[in-house]
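Support request from a user on the community tier.

User writes: "When I paste my structure tokens into the form, the page sometimes reloads and wipes my input. The last time it worked, I copied everything first. Here is what I submitted, just in case something in the input itself triggers the reload:"
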């Protein structure tokens, strides 16, 4: 399963952790470590072009889909 939203294409993004409370030696430059931000994905059954498919959708798109179904 890939970590990509089927609807909007949201995927894993790289970034940095910044240590704000640090020792006297790092007074002028805070230490930074690499990290990844992963999307909050959910498996959903969707009707795509008349076929039912199992796809992964981020929660933002999932909420929009649920709102459309209610109306």
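"...and here is what came back when it finally went through:"
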């Amino acid at each position: 399963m890939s970590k990509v939203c089927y609807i909007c294409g949201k995927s894993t993004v790289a970034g940095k952790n910044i240590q704000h409370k640090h020792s006297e030696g790092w007074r002028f430059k805070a230490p930074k470590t690499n990290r990844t931000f992963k999307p909050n994905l959910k498996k959903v059954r969707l009707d795509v072009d008349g076929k039912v498919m199992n796809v992964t959708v981020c929660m933002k798109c999932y909420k929009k889909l649920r709102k459309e179904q209610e109306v």
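Agent notes: The reload is a front-end session timeout and is unrelated to the input. The longest helix spans residues 59-70. The mean pLDDT is 89. Escalated to web team.
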